[in-house]
Design goal:
It is built from 22 helices and 28 strands. It is α/β, with parallel strands linked by helices. A hairpin with a 5-residue loop joins strand 20 and strand 21. Helix 4 runs parallel beside helix 6. The chain is globular and about 90 Å long.
Length: about 775
Amino acid sequence: MTHQHHSPAPGAPAAGGELSLAQKASLTSGGGDFVTQAAGDVPAVSMSDGPHGLRLPKEQGDGGQVDLHSAAPATCFPPAVALGSSWDPQLAGRVAAAIAAEARAHGVHVVLGPGINIKRSPLCGRNFEYFSEDPLVTAEVGGAMVRGLQEAGVGAALKHYAANNQETDRMRVSADIDERPLREIYLRAFERIVRRDRPWSVMSAYNAVNGVPLSENHRLLTDILRSEWGFDGVVMSDWGAVRDRVPALRAGLDLQMPGTGGRTDAEVVTAVESGELDAGALDRSVARLALFARRATAADGAGEVSYEAHHELARTAAERCVVLLKNDGELLPLAPDSGIVAVIGEMARAPRFQGAGSSQVTPTRLDVPLDCLNAAADGASVTFAAGYALPGADAGDQAGGEEADAAAAEDLVEEAERLAADSDTVLLFLGLPAQDESEGFDRDHIDLPEAQVRLLERVVAVNPRVAVVLSNGGVVSTAPWHDRVPALVEGWLLGQGGGAALAGVLFGSVNPSGRLAETIPLRLEDSPSHLSFPGEEGHVRYGEGVFVGYRGYDRRRTEVAFPFGHGLSYTTFAYSALTVLPGADGARLDLRVRVANTGQRAGREVVQIYSRGPAGGQVARPVRELRGFASVELAPGEEVEVRVSVDRADLAHYSEREAKWRVEGGVHHFEAAASSRDIRLTVPVTLDGDPSRILLTGRHTLAEWLEHPVGGPLLAEAFARGRTDESAGAMADPVMRRFLAGIPLDVIADFPQSSVGPEDVITLSAKVAAEAAGGEPPADDDE
């Protein structure tokens, strides 16, 4: 697939006519809540929240102000927490194209999404808007949404750039991150999507990174985003994120949202007139905004939208997002003649299907799980008991005090208990109430409500045939009770078609194929970020480094409830014949593995490819990292070859010392897997490493010299040439070699018994520099 993009020519005028300074300044801030300013022949651009469907607030009065509480209906597709579990970029692209069609029908030019921030902690209140704890899954599913929107003529606003991984103090907190995890984890998906999918806009986040607010962060907005990655679109602020308009423009922020009624426009004009702001910086932003406005409005004109077809797509997408976590004794799927099926849990009747905050959609219709289960039951008798009340409709809102509240709650449990005891199977719907997770605040824990856990215990005591169905936007702990139930379904938040999707999975018309895009821990305390989330006094230290999610759980050998990539099926799959071949261009590796459906039902398998770096590498590495994935749908007995291509560059780590990406030479192991802890096949591959660009000096250690591809042989030769019996004995002694390994070479050279002297160190350093001079400029690492 070819993705076209166009950049303005250097010095090109922003518009067909000459714009005044005031008009230029006005273009760089909003004309209202969700619309940009028009000036000259630069048209206004209309925007809408919409990571999983349009939030279409009704305008009220003049100036583009909107009423956020009376949104017009739009299709509510599965939020990112669910769509990430589909591991299906093509599906994400179809969803995005449908959202784009609805956007055009409503005159919306740009959809504010997708959100591709990494799930650093399970406590983040906005995790339901994000895809994964892994940058690759995030980039593949999120990138497909960017392409789906823009190929349909509607702009994407990739957000929230960058390191926006919590809601606590979100508008001020500084995410303090070392360069390596920043590059490998938190910028990686942004980089991949910007380079490959060319989003028309990027939204800068509220937070600061290493003390510098994103809206004023020249290094992230200009040096990295534009100069390194080649971004040619518009950088807009998150709503209310700009602290000081003039340094923001200087840093590379093109558009402040929402508008400020001209107040900050006047500040820009004054800054240009006084020389505080270079007029060229404003002109560059205006040129980008003009191109953005023309791109976004080029496809004006609505086509036909079939909301019925979009609802069916929402249902299809939801079916692919459901994750079957556990199915002991093949309790699921339920047979058509399952006898009496007790549906217990208020969430079966009043489902949660999306999160709260700016992404909230008014659905065109809603499939209710209880209704859909009744419709799907062909011969089975479906009964219902609420079991618990949801906040806002519980006993706490009624007169009578705490005793009456407790009595009402107990009545609900007893009713459910009686129903369960008289039934053949129980479908128990549990999950997080809406007020437990939202944009704007983080969670305090990952537990289900106590009342729901007590209900589960009472139900299981009278009927062991229980399948729990979860509805939640953030991970919940299942460890206190999952061993007591034979079947467990992770339903996430599934959008408006989720009720039918769950009924299809539970009664077997749908074979579940979702896979976890994040780890479910046994305890919150096991999370790698636990001791440094959400920070204090305006700073949050990303102390776990690159060991985020499964990278951290696996490296610490921490037991988990369900691992990253896990998901069961109603059939089984076998893997064989894993091979790894170099690509024709030498820049990639082509992996092939045969997959067979060894069960009795058609099903879809998600083949995951991980790699393990060389043993004893130069930096701490995760045990394994996801490098690619592909899915395949197979009939019973069918076998196919699955191919996954891995770019050699993706095997690199970011060297802070060299300020570049480096592939370490040695034996890399490639694994075909069904999850990060279900490795089916492994193949070792020896790769040449990237040359070091470090200029070695006497301040580098003996180990650093010996590991250097140029300096190592030179130093070994010098040792051999000048060695004495005493120095030879020291180098031959393994304990002494370890002792010396961490000592700078110029210190060793000063030892009387050393076989190299200070003048040798100078000569050797000069030779290393001369060798490096023929390539790109080496890193100056003279400490």
